[in-house]
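[agent] plan:
  1. take the single chain provided in the ticket
  2. run structure prediction with default settings
  3. attach C-alpha cells to the ticket
  4. add a short note for the reviewer (M.T.)
[agent] executing step 1
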Amino acid sequence: MERAEVAEMMGSRFGIPPEAFEAVSFFLRGRNVWAFSLPEVPDLDYEAVGLRFISLRGRVPKPSTYALQLFGRFATKNVVDLSSDQARKFIAGERQSMEADLEDGYVVVAHQGDVLGCGLYSRGELISQLPKERRIGEGGIENLLEGGGR
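[agent] step 2 finished; step 3 output follows
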C-alpha cells in the first residue's frame, strides 16, 4: 500500500500531516495495513512484519491503538483529551457520555496530552476501542494516571 494513501486516510480523519509518515513503509495483507521502518518488505517467510496499523474490515478504516499511540501526537482534529476520571473509565473499557467537538467515528483519545489509544465517538458517547487484553481496571491505574507509570 502506498504511503500517500495511508497518509491521506490519517490526514483526512485526524489532520496528521503526511510528513509524519516519511520514515514508515506500509503493506496490505488481507484486510490489514501493516507499518514497518524498512524501505521495503524483506524477502523472508513471515507471518507479519511491523505493527498492524489500520484495519479495513468495516466500512470505515479503523486505526489500531498502536498506530494512534505512535502518531496520534501529530493529530489536529478528532482528538479528545480526557480528565483523569474519564481516562480511568476509558482505560477500563467503559462507555461514557460526553459532548465534544468531534465528528462521529474513530477518535484519538488522550489524557494530559499523552495518547491512550483509539475511541469511537458516536452521538455523544465515547466507546473505548482498547483491546481487552490492554485494559486496566479501576484499581490498577492510579499510579499510571498520576505519572508513576513514566
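[agent] step 4 note for reviewer: The domain at 78-148 is CATH 2.30.130.60 (Archaeosine Trna-guanine Transglycosylase; Chain: A, domain 4).
[agent] ticket updated
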